[in-house]
Amino acid sequence: MSRFIATALAATMLVPVAAHAEGQIEVLHHWVSQSEVDALNVIRKELEAKGFEWKDSAVGGMSGANAQQALRSRLTAGNPPGAMQFLGWEGVQWAEQGVVRDLNDLATAGGWREALAPQLLPFVTSGEAFIAAPINMHRQNWVWANRKLFDDAGVAVPKTWAELIETGKTLKEKGIVPVAMGDEPWQIGIIFDALLSDINGPEFYQKTAIDLDPEALGSPEMVKVFDMLREVRGLVDDNFVGRDWAVATGMVINGEAAMQFMGDWAKGEFLAKGLKPNQDFYCFATPGAVTSFQYLIDSFGMFTVSDETVQKAQVALAETIMDPKVQKGFNLIKGSIPARNDVSVDDFDDCAKLGYQERAAAIEKGSMQGAITHGFAAKPEFASVFSDVAAQFFVGKMSSEDAVKMLVSGIDNAR
Amino acid sequence: MSASTRMSSRLAGWLPRIVVAPSLLVVIVTVYLFILWTGVISVTSSKFVPTYDFVGLEQYVRLWATPRWHTAVANLFIFSALFLALSTGLGLLMAILLDQNIRAEGALRAIYLYPMALSFIVTGTAWKWIMNPGLGVQKVVNDLGWTDFRFDWITNPDTAIYTVVVAGVWQSSGFAMAIFLAGLRGIDNSVIKAAQIEGASLPLIYRQIIIPMLRPAMLSVIVLLSYIAIKSFDLVLALTNGGPGTATELPSTFMFSATFRRNQMGVGAASAVMMLMTVAAIIVPYLYSELRSENNG
């Protein structure tokens, strides 16, 4: 059904629109929830102040897969939108097809490369070309915890995964669900990604999730990751099937469950209920010897178009997105932190401040890495093997050794 | 006079062809051309976008080396077999029972047929809650006092596919019933009377005379239901979303995620071709035998 809507929307968007006096740019994106739209309006207002009109083309659903399909049909029809929201490798892959505009002049003049963490560059550049302007950065490996439950049980914020499992067992004895989550592969993937780096260090993450080194993938260290994932399964209740992530967050808020592993988009649910970080709820990174920062970013790329007014609008939009003031305003609403490293987060909440600090430390230690589950490590055909194996292992009775074998053969098969 | 008559008779001869031509053209392009195109894509190395370099059967080898595909194929057979057998069986039973000149038949018929009016998305979502052990049937029965009662198929990867069968049968058996009921109404009463005069018992009449006479209805039901079974993409998506893990993956959900989410357009196309061949392998011989026996009979 949602495919039908996407196609229908794609079809309606083929109707050409009259050009605006100053220039108009159509932006294809998949942000449809209220906070996302509010955040986008920060960009939109600034763009309008520069005299350009933002034409909204939102195609929601399927975590952006519907918007991607809409884009495909638009490109096939030879009528690409002015700009498009990119996730993961999408921008790079379209750039390889030669349809994305190079923003290198703007990037050089504006010092964009210097303002971004070097780890981001593979996702916003293609060869010498600068292909997408990143607006925000989410961190995937957060733990959200109900402080009252922690206090009542007399447990502290865990510093290692072993402690976290012990804490969970203590809570379980008191009749509390230690970990709230659903059975969707991406929710399981969030835990798996975190364990890869937390247990064996960021170099291991690099070798497995990014370089796909067969030796590391089949190593005893990988068995340890699955062993720990099995321990985490023991902390999840049996009704987790079909549970939406926001419902799981609600369980932590209501005190039904103690913890949730989720990216910082979960923070909005706590703040919306008027809860305060560190007073009512804890936010802390998944515990590891080296604290990891597993990021995902949203960026906007511009397509090659012949209309000069649209070209001008593209420049204005890219500059607006990279404007530190806009990055701040946008991320205050969206719940993420600015993609630029040089934007102050003094006005942000404590969780965002902690994330910002830990990002700076992680960039130095090499533990700032893209999250596999959200497509910022291996390419999708490999990332999906990680999520398939982790999900099948988590819900079933597979042994860790079998899971490792399945992972190695699955990655080989996708090569 | 004769000229205008000739004109109109020529138009009358051409009119059906003119009327049918656009829809035929649309069918040729949107169905057969795209089947052909999918076939071509399946023998190329297409990943993110279509590319046209011939790699032979590499994508098929890759497809059959993917454990998720094996799960999907096994699930399709479990689901289709049970779904077809149960929907047809229950539909026939309900139709026969409704055909006994009972009171309020119209109301009952509407009630049984009503699930068909819902979309699979609604059915899937409703049954997801009904079968969730913490919300649905299990919780109600536990709260009533039977605390040992377990109905947690949906949480177990080995049994989750049966929950899809339950929801599918609930939705479609009323539809099968409607077709069988129409078939039963079409049977001449004198045949039954004659059998009764000969002293045949009612079960015997049904087994030996009426059910064999329902063959055309049976053909429609089986063809329509197998088509529903093959395309039951949205039911799985709403009910289990392929989970737990990847336990309820079906070829259709596999094809969608390979093509549109995993950069494996070639593998997705190969899986689509496999689905087409599976359907053809089942439906074509059946259609052939049914149509041939019709001609003979």
From TrEMBL, chain A:
Keyword Coiled coil on entry: no
Extent of the signal sequence: 1-21
Pfam families linked to this entry: SBP_bac_1
Keyword terms, alphabetized: Periplasm, Signal, Sugar transport, Transport
Domain of life: Bacteria
Any one of the GO CC terms: periplasmic space
Compartments it resides in: Periplasm
Primary residence: periplasm
Function description: Part of a binding-protein-dependent transport system for a sugar.
Family: Belongs to the bacterial solute-binding protein 1 family.
Protein name per the record: Probable sugar-binding periplasmic protein
Organism: Shinella granuli
UniProtKB/TrEMBL annotation, chain B:
Principal place of residence: membrane
Keyword set, alphabetical order: Cell membrane, Membrane, Transmembrane, Transmembrane helix, Transport
Biological process terms in GO annotation: transmembrane transport
Tree of life domain: Bacteria
Record-annotated ABC transmembrane type-1 domain positions: 73-288
Transmembrane spans: 12-37, 76-98, 110-130, 160-184, 205-230, 265-288
Translocase in keyword set: no
Pfam families (UniProt xref): BPD_transp_1 (PF00528)
GO cellular component: plasma membrane
Membrane topology category: Multi-pass membrane protein
InterPro entries membership: ABC_transporter_permease, MetI-like, MetI-like_sf
Cross-referenced PANTHER family: ABC TRANSPORTER PERMEASE PROTEIN
Protein's name according to its UniProt entry: Carbohydrate ABC transporter membrane protein 1 (CUT1 family)
